[in-house]
Amino acid sequence: MSKAVKMKPVRRLVPKKPSNNILKDPVGVYCRVRPLSQDDQECCIEVISETTIQLHPPDGIKVNRNGEFKETQYSFKKVFGINTTQLELFEDVAKPLVDDLLHCKNGLLFTYGVTGSGKTYTMTGSPGQGGLLPRCLNMIFNSIGPYQAKRFVFKTDDKNGMEIQTQVDALLERQKRENQSALIKTPKQRLDPDVADMINIEDACKVEGIDEDSVFAIFVSYIEIYNNYIYDLLEDTPFEPIKPKWNGCGTPMRSTEFIPPQSKILREDQNHNMYVAGCTEVEVKSTEEAFEVFWKGQKKRRIANTQLNRESSRSHSVFIIKLAQAPLDADGDNVLQDKEQICVSQLCLVDLAGSERTHRTKAEGNRLREAGNINQSLMTLRTCIEVLRENQMYGTNKMVPYRDSKVTHLFKNYFDGEGKVRMIVCVNPKADDYEETLLVMRFAEMTQEVEVARPVDRPICGLTPGRRHRNQAFKDELTRKLEERGGPINGDDGSMIDILLQSFPPLPSCELVDPSDEQTLPALIECLEKRQRAREMLIEAFHNQVVKTKSMIQNFEGTVSGKDNIIQEQRAKLSDKDRVILQHKSELDRLEKKTKTLEYKIEILQKTANIYEEDKRALQQELDTKDQKLHRQLSDNRRLEARLQGVASETKIKWEKECERRVAAKQLEMQNKLWVKDEKLKQLKAIVTENKNERPDQPEKPERPSRDKDKVLLRPVTPSPASSAPPVRPRHRRSRSAGGERWVDHKPASNLELDTVLQPHIPNAIQVSTPSEKALSKCDKYVLTHQELASDGEIETKLIKGEVFRTRGGGQAVQFTDIETLKQESPTGSSRKRRSSGNIPVQQEETTENEWTDVETRCSVAVEMRAGSNLGPGYQHHGLPKRRKP
Ligand code: ADP
Ligand code: MG
User: Fold this and answer.
1) Which range scores top for mean pLDDT: 2-6, 195-199, 384-388?
2) pLDDT at 644
3) Per residue in 345-388, pLDDT tens?
4) What is the DSSP string of 148-165?
5) 124 C-alpha to center of ligand 2: Å?
6) Separation of 579 CA from ligand 2 center, angstroms?
7) Residue 710 · residue 760 · CB < 8 Å
8) Which ligand sits closest to the CA of 361?
9) For a surface tag, which of 66, 279, 436, 440 has the fewest beta carbons within 10 Å of its beta carbon?
10) Coil, helix or strand at residue 841
């Protein structure tokens, strides 16, 4: 036998609190409406669709305070009307649970409703109308029939677990038990025809996809919960009719006179499943056997109820079908001897007590108390469902009072562990039940809102599938071959010996009573000789057989050695393959290493690339910043350039104007100088001619007679520049200045009065000692009378004339155009100080020249007065550093 592959244990520890990622299904609630019985007339229930029923309040029942009738509707997963057959119900409700059971998942199915509503009819059925229970059994055995384990291969332990033993041990145990039961053999009762009718199920249905490489065993147990006590209905104690004896608390009392049924307690196994401790679990191999066991329990229940004066409708019955399955070993011949590989699942079929309230039971005394208790357990069931629903719907964490009653405690793990739960609500449409039916409907609707964790699939066994079939095929082939070679070797040895023994002649009587008996001994001798011959024949036959067997063994050995050779060959091939595999492995290792190196390199390159990328980004940023800076600078430069160009052009224009002005001034100065020199030359000429002609009376200047007149008294040392053609404005004449134009006559206060005849007289003039803007604005001509003390003690008077212009700024400007010079002896002598220039050289010629230059300088000064100037009547000189106060 090859070693079994070790696997994870199939039995899982179910988490106490299912976490959120576990799939959940709501409790499947179905409704079955039974037909009205002949005694009842009024019907208060109507099936209005496949999933909905409607309740009509019967006559005489006021539903609300207004006394109005109210019709209510209730919806379920499916509603089964009065014509529903047992088979239809089974197909829809129980079949999936059987399917789950055979796939190692737990299931719970219970019927709920008032007494007489058809709970028992639905669960157990009636003759010819098998209910869900016999149908479930039938389906189970149909499915596992050929794959059932031999009895006692699986053994239940006392902790709700399952053990496994070899087929040989199981055989020994079987024989032991058979011997025991043979001692107290009771004649086998024939199956009750009614029972046979119930399990005679024509539609043999089967679960698909069951594991054919496993072996299965079914164990059933049947318990009753009455008055919150659990009783084992399959317990083997011979039942004695018992008279009830109760203590004050409604508990059955032990008594020496009676042997009351022992109540059982509930325990929790290591998987948190609840079980009835010490409960009988009967291994059954067929539907008939299983149903017989059930029927036995049912009978016991009935008798106990009668004997103990119980209200039978007040008890809950629970039929538990437990399925154990374990995989076959690798050869597909024997069960794998691994406890961990056993998978146990169970289907509980519960026929609950009638849900009606106590007053309806018409019970009295003890029975009333019991009834109350039973109602209490159904109350607990309702409370548990309510709390569960609340916890699930509102996320609360209220404690579910499972422990308050045995029924709820037993099924605790279906609700907070995992399993499929289904409920059939049975209703009797009769009017009497209306009020109770209403309560049943409300509870049923609420139950639908409770969710139960969906059982998870068991892990698949690691052994090769199809082991069983392969093994069977091998066995068949072997038998065929042996038959070919002269029949099976393992003939019936026992019978052969018997035949041999029978073939020996029987020994005659060898009692010697008479010494002269001559017949007995010869007869004995003859018989013994015959026996001797037979023995020799047998020995010979045996030897022949041995020889035959030997040759067979030799043949077999030949075959075996042939097989050995083949095996050797295969081994060699295998080792070749192993070598190839090793090579491949080393190649794989090398490639893996290479891959790792390459991966490492890639990683490094990736990192380097990242670094470069970052650098690039930083540089790009820097570049961008610099670009922006450059752009800014460029635009700044352009702006500056534009501004500078503006300033340059402005300055250029200004300086051009200034230059023009200076050139003009210089030209004027030069012309003046030229003119002075001309004049001097003329005077020299005149002096020369005078000296020659001894002062002629009349000056020889016919072109300027008016001037000559003036010059008689005023000995002109230097001719007035105005007397000849003025350089700036040649058409400017004195006569014109004395005409209609207005003059500003500027005579500084320090001037001396000259008592000469030829006083310069300007009519229509405004006389001022300091020029003011007001005066200037009224006139268009300006004349300054300037006195100086010459070196020879004469006073030199100069008349400096100019024209007044309006400036653009709104002020007045004077442009000097003409100078006239007069000389006269100083009335104050040489003591008079020269005002304008303190250190004039003594030489007249030079002085004159200097003065001219000086005056000329002043002539070029433009006196500008601006309107609103803060200098008041002040003025500004332009362009010349030399300044004199007027
Ligand atoms: P419960 O167990 O709820 O008290 P039972 O199953 O004992 O009720 O049913 C009471 C009676 O009604 C039985 O005689 C049963 O045969 C009959 N009955 C119940 N349901 C049906 C049904 N669907 N079709 C025919 N008869 C029914
Ligand atoms: Mg019943």
Assistant:
1) 384-388
2) 93
3) 999 999 999 988 755 445 455 555 555 555 788 999 999 999 99
4) BPPTTSEEE-TTS-EEE-
5) 9
6) 73
7) no
8) 1
9) 66
10) coil
Which of 497 and 175 is assigned the larger pLDDT? 175
What single-letter DSSP state applies at residue 319?
Answer: E
Q: What is the mean pLDDT of residues 18-42?
A: 85
Show the 3-state SS of 524-549: HHHHHHHHHHHHHHHHHHHHHHHHHH
Does residue 634 surpass a pLDDT of 80? Answer: yes
When the pLDDT of each residue in the chain is averaged and rounded to a whole number, the result is 79
Cα 160 to averaged position of ligand 2 atoms, centre (Å)? 28
d(CA 783, CA 742): 11
Tokens of 361: 């039971």
pLDDT band at 243 (very low <50, low <70, confident <90, very high): very low
Question: What pLDDT score was predicted for residue 30?
Answer: 97
Element containing residue 817 per DSSP (H, E): strand 812-825
Q: How far apart are alpha carbons 449 and 622 in whole angstroms?
A: 68
Q: For residue 113, which atom of ligand 1 is closest to its CA?
A: 3
Q: Using pLDDT thresholds of 50, 70 and 90, give the confidence band for residue 265.
A: very high
Contact 783, 886 (CB under 8 A): no
Q: How far is CA 768 from the centre of its chain?
A: 104
CB 70 within 8 A of CB 55: no
- Contact, 8 vs 341, CB < 8 A? no
Ligand 1 shell residues, CB under 6 Å? 34-35, 113, 115-121, 126, 313, 354, 426
Please, what is the Cα angle at 782 between 776 and 787, to 5 degrees?
A: 125
> Which of 121, 133, 427 to probe ligand 1 with, by most ligand atoms within 8 A of CB?
121
Rounded to an integer, what distance in angstroms lies between the CA atom of residue 407 and that of residue 317? 10
Length of the chain in residues, anyone? 886
pLDDT band at 836 (very low <50, low <70, confident <90, very high): very low
For the CA of 114, the closest atom of ligand 1 is 3
Ligand 1 atom showing the smallest separation from residue 124 Cα? 6
Percent of the chain with pLDDT over 90: 40
Model pTM? 0.56
Q: Which atom of ligand 1 is nearest to the CA of 84?
A: 23
pLDDT of the residue at 792: 67
Point out the ligand nearest to the CA of residue 125: 1
Coil/strand/helix, residue 667: helix
Instruction: Report which residue type is found at 762.
Output: I
Give residue for tokens 């109820």.
Answer: 305
Q: Which residues contact 101 (CB under 8 A, 6 or more apart)?
A: 107, 140, 321, 323, 345, 346, 347
Question: Would you say residue 620 has pLDDT above 70?
Answer: yes
Please state the rounded mean pLDDT for residues 297-305: 86
Ligand nearest, relative to CA of residue 427 = 1
Reported as a pLDDT band with limits 50, 70 and 90, residue 505 is: low
Q: Note the pLDDT of residue 784.
A: 84
Are 140 and 379 in contact by the 8 Å Cβ rule? The answer is: no
* Secondary structure (DSSP) of 3-29: PPPP---SS----SS--TTS-EEEPEE
Instruction: Reduce the secondary structure of 220-287 to three states and give it as a string.
Output: EEEEEEECCEEEECCCCCCCCCCCCCECCCCCECCCCCCCCCCEECEEECCCCCEEECCCCCEEECCH
Q: How far is the CA of 405 from the centre of ligand 1 (A)?
A: 27
Which ligand is nearest the CA of 425, by number?
1
- Work out whether strand 107-112 and strand 343-351 pair parallel, antiparallel, or are unpaired: parallel
> What's the 113 CA to ligand 1 centre distance in angstroms?
11
3-state secondary structure of 30: strand
- Whether the CB-CB separation of 506 and 481 falls below 8 Å is answered with no
Amino acid at 85: T
Residue 763: band (very low, low, confident or very high) from pLDDT cuts 50, 70, 90: confident
CA of 277 to the centre of ligand 2 (A): 26
Report the distance separating Cα 83 and Cα 89, nearest Å.
11
